[in-house]
Amino acid sequence: MKFTLTGSLGNTGKPLAEQLVKAGHAVTIITSDEAKTAAIGAIGATAAVGSVTDAIFLANAFTGADAVFAMTPPNLGGSNIISNTTEAGKSFAEAIKKSGVKKVVMLSSIGADLPSGTGPIAGLYNIEQLYNQLDGVAVTFLRAGYFYLNFYNDLPVIRALGIMGANYPAATNLPLVHPSDIAAAAAEELQQVSAGKKIRYVISDIKTAEQLAATLGKAVGKENLPWAEMTDEQFLGALTQAGLPAELAGLYTEMGKGFREGRIPAHFIKEGSPVEGKIKLADFAREFAAKY
Known about the structure:
The chain is an alpha/beta fold and about 290 residues long. It has helices at about 15-20, 35-40, 55-60, 80-100, 120-130, 155-160, 180-190, 210-220, 230-240, 245-260, 265-270, 280-290; strands spanning about 1-5, 25-30, 45-50, 65-70, 105-110, 140-145, 145, 165, 175, 195-200, 205-210, 225-230. The chain has 2 domains: about 1-145 and about 180-200, NAD(P)-binding Rossmann-like Domain (Rossmann fold), CATH 3.40.50.720; about 205-290, UDP-galactose 4-epimerase, domain 1 (Alpha-Beta Complex), CATH 3.90.25.10. It has a 7-stranded parallel sheet, with helices on both faces. It has a 3-stranded mixed sheet with strand order 7-9-11. The chain has a two-stranded parallel sheet with strand order 8-12. The longest helix is centred in the first third of the chain and has 19 residues, at about 80-100. The radius of gyration is 19 Å and the shape is globular. Pfam families: NAD_binding_10 (PF13460). This is NAD(P)H-binding protein.
């Protein structure tokens, strides 16, 4: 089979491509960086260099593929993030229609069932709506949990202050995911026959924020690392002080509020809180310690 993947050689894109190549498929990887062409070739794939906001380029890259893995880059431009994400989704949808590809696996997110109040996830809600309108195209929405890798951003605070924290309480349950588990689910969905539109949650583990801090703290030699709940104002200030642009900091604060109020995981819980990923928090803690 022939697959076209977006996401370049990122944390999800690279292991996904490697699995598909190993299974004997022809894989084209879209990248905006021409310098990655050699690395893409080294894993047995073909590079297509261009922008994911260019519908004509995307249509050419999708043409002839049996299926496409659609991943919209996060934080496009650093400002007007939701609108930029949505516009990129429009380019994808236009390219899918023009190319005639009949199967798409989209990397989405927990909370993408909600149109607002979810921070950056709102852009993925908009894209899901666009893909739902694609006639004759089978689409699997992979709604991923909160990436383990995001907690690397907490390393400076752990080193300096000996805490972890956000604007939700220690008892908040967090559906978490490792990119390798997303890659495994995407590979499975791309290779199987499917029709219509469906949602598949990809979650590796569920832990409270308190359990998260304790596990990661122990891994880096800080026993009983506390979870500090902040107000929205305190969290926003901490993010901006850490150097995040004001708009992005505001979106992350809104997302934290969505977890605090239980809105973001509500549909996931309604579906039975399925956990299928293999990489548990204890496994990721070893990766986290290596970065510490």
